[in-house]
């Protein structure tokens, strides 16, 4: 679903926006409770002197839509994404392949699908899942 893919593009834009502009950057792809969680996470990340770098490669599967609700699974390869020092840009961490994410989406009153929740499962996945 497009909102899920866009979430991973909007997150870094929100990180680099002024704190008072972050909600506006995210609200077209995220809704509560994820919206609040992301805003808190960005504030904490920036307070620690870090930013994210790169974007995971998404491999969505098992998309289920029931009325105005949907779920999808994603077997991310996050080796080309992680955290970096905000000042130097030095990459400090990177993700792993086979990161199994499950997202819940809601089609809101304005007719737009938004991501409401994203959870990472403990068991790794394979993109061929």
**What is the number of strand segments?**
6
Strand content: 25-35%
**Portion in helices:** 25-40%
**Mean pLDDT over the residues:** 96
Protein structure class: alpha+beta
Distance between the termini: 17 Å
Main sheet overview: 4 strands, antiparallel
Q: Which blocks of ≥5 consecutive residues have pLDDT under 50?
A: none
- Approximate shape: flat
The H-and-E topology, N to C, reads as HHHEEEEEE
Q: In order across it, which strands form the biggest sheet?
A: 2-3-5-6
**Tally of individual helices:** 3
Radius of gyration: 15 Å
Describe the structure.
- The longest helix is centred in the first third of the chain and has 15 residues, at 2-16.
- The protein is built from 3 helices and 6 strands, in the order αααββββββ.
- A hairpin with a 2-residue loop joins β2 and β3.
- The protein has a 4-stranded antiparallel sheet. It has a two-stranded antiparallel sheet with strand order 1-4.
- With 129 residues, the chain is an alpha+beta fold.
- Helix content is 26%, strand content 35%.
- It is flat and about 45 Å long.
- 20% of the residues are buried.
- The chain has helices at residues 2-16, 22-26, 34-47, and strands at residues 50-54, 60-66, 69-77, 81-85, 97-107, 113-120.
